[in-house]
């Protein structure tokens, strides 16, 4: 099977260069790595690489950048794996992904277990990631080895190309594209299983540079959830509890916010989106006007 890795990136050329070097240690090398960015200033190519590296330039934003690279890749590869530019996969990640699809023809989407996630804290270093992968190497986690999911976590997700068809990421979910990964992969459930294989491991560094403002992100936490439920792509039983947890976290922590999270800005964004939803305005792209 031919496998491509797509890495959407923005403003992290040094991080991408390090990730490309790290991918050279995979036990199953990618057949190609495609970097999707607004322009060449966002990427730093290695002088040499054990696999081809190509560039895909197009509009800025998570959904748009995923689409820019995905469309041309579908006809050339059997599997497309998306990595965030701050995701560190275990050395056997791609081999395990290929084995998972080869042995399960009804699987449409495969994601790995995130053994540590810097998105939930101040962020992690490469050293943190490498230590976590060493500690969990060969470990059998409690619970089932394969878990069905509503959708996949976008920091690491792989698709069987023959099942994607004309489905694309929703470009109304602009900039950071909050929940664009769940929207896309939830729709893939009509074509095959969406699973997490817990033996496939990686670490999400959760680097904070390149993120949108707190107000914009807070607006997306509400507006995107309501939009996707009305669209019918994401179940209300998933989207609304997530939305309410985020609002509660922003409200509860706004008096003593973490130094790495703009809780007050997020809360203002939440309130503005709630006001818009109450008046019938459901417009994810409104964040471009904030």
Please, could you describe this protein's structure?
- With 290 residues, the chain is an alpha/beta fold.
- It contains nine helices and nine strands.
- The chain has helices at residues 13-23, 62-74, 93-103, 126-136, 161-164, 180-188, 214-231, 236-253, 263-278, and strands spanning 3-8, 32-37, 53-57, 79-83, 87-89, 107-117, 146-148, 156-160, 193-204.
- Strands 1, 2, 3, 4, 5, 6, 7, 8 and 9 form a nine-stranded mixed sheet that branches.
- Helix 7 packs antiparallel against helix 8 and helix 7 (214-231) runs parallel beside helix 9.
- The mean pLDDT is 95.
Can you lay out the helices and strands and say which pair or pack?
Blueprint: E1 3-8, H1 13-23, E2 32-37, E3 53-57, H2 62-74, E4 79-83, E5 87-89, H3 93-103, E6 107-117, H4 126-136, E7 146-148, E8 156-160, H5 161-164, H6 180-188, E9 193-204, H7 214-231, H8 236-253, H9 263-278
Parallel strand pairs: 1-2, 1-4, 2-3, 6-9
Antiparallel strand pairs: 4-8, 5-9, 6-8, 7-9
Helix pairs in contact: 7-8, 7-9, 8-9
Stretches with pLDDT under 50, minimum 5 residues = none
Count the beta strands: 9
Structural class: alpha/beta
Number of helices: 9
Oligomer: single chain
Short description:
Helix content is 38%, strand content 19%. It has 290 residues and is an alpha/beta fold. The mean pLDDT is 95.
């Amino acid at each position: 099977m031919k496998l491509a890795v797509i890495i959407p990136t923005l403003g992290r050329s040094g991080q991408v260069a390090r990730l490309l070097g790290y991918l050279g240690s995979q036990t199953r090398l990618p057949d190609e790595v495609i970097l999707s960015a607004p322009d060449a200033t966002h990427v730093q190519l290695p002088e040499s690489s054990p696999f081809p590296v190509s560039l895909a330039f197009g509009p800025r934003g998570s959904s748009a950048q995923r689409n820019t690279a995905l469309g041309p890749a579908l006809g050339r590869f059997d599997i497309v794996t998306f990595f965030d530019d701050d995701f560190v996969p275990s050395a056997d990640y791609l081999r395990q992904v290929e084995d998972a699809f080869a042995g399960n023809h009804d699987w449409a989407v495969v994601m790995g277990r995130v053994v540590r996630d810097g998105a939930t804290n101040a962020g992690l270093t490469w050293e943190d990631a490498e230590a976590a992968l060493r500690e969990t190497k060969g470990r059998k986690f409690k619970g089932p080895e394969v878990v069905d999911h509503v959708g996949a976590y976008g920091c690491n997700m792989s698709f069987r190309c023959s099942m994607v068809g004309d489905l694309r990421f929703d470009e109304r979910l602009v900039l950071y594209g909050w929940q664009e990964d769940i929207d896309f992969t939830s729709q893939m459930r009509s074509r095959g299983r969406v699973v997490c294989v817990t033996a496939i491991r990686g670490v999400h560094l959760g680097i904070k540079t390149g993120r949108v403002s707190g107000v914009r992100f807070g607006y997306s936490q509400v507006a995107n959830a309501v939009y996707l439920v009305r669209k019918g792509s994401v179940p209300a039983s998933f989207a609304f509890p997530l939305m309410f947890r985020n609002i509660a976290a922003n409200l509860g922590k706004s008096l003593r916010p973490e130094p790495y999270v703009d809780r007050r800005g997020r809360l203002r964004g939440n309130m503005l989106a709630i006001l818009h939803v109450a008046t019938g305005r459901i417009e994810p792209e409104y964040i471009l006007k904030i």
